[in-house]
Amino acid sequence: MIQCAPRPTATTVVNGWSSERRELLQARLTQGSLLSPVLSFFFNADLVQRQGQQAGRSIAYVDDYTAWVTGPTSEVNHANINRAFDWERRSEVTFEADKTAIIHFSRKKTRTDNDPFLIEGEAVYPKERVKVLGLIMKWRRRRAYSGLEADLQNEDQAIDRLSHIAERYPL
């Protein structure tokens, strides 16, 4: 006897109104689907809005999520970042350890925290440099060489761009 799984069905609920349950002809979205950004907006809204209420900002687009938090100590920042992992557990989604990066910005290396975050049982340690939206972010804000001003200006511009993107495309 061959048993087949029943075809998936779905219903749409908006402001308490529910559509009738219908069979899904295709139960997944193809890569690059026009619906992906819309659906990700609804799915990720809780994460992005929750992150925005803390000391920090975040950007989300489809399956990419970038957040930055600020605080007086790296321990406070660590606790704020853990809220994103709480959302991960509640939403039953998975952050991929190999696509996750943590960076602490500080003028002094001794003020940073090197404790890892556990993602899918894999330790993810803070890095000294991370690429965010094509911009290289470095943990250290001061340098002891002649290129200090240019380096700081590039990092300030990168942070400014991230802030403008978040302001221009609020969720």
From TrEMBL:
- Taxonomically, the superkingdom here is Eukaryota
Sorted alphabetically, which InterPro entries does this protein's record hold?
RT_dom
Entries under PROSITE patterns matching the protein: RT_POL
The answer to whether keyword Nucleotidyltransferase applies is: yes
Keyword annotations from UniProtKB, A to Z: Nucleotidyltransferase, RNA-directed DNA polymerase, Transferase
Keyword Nucleotidyltransferase among UniProt keywords: yes
The molecular function terms of the Gene Ontology recorded here are: RNA-directed DNA polymerase activity
Q: Which residues form the Reverse transcriptase domain?
A: 1-137
- Per its record, how is this protein called by name? Putative reverse transcriptase
Species for this entry: Rosellinia necatrix (White root-rot fungus)
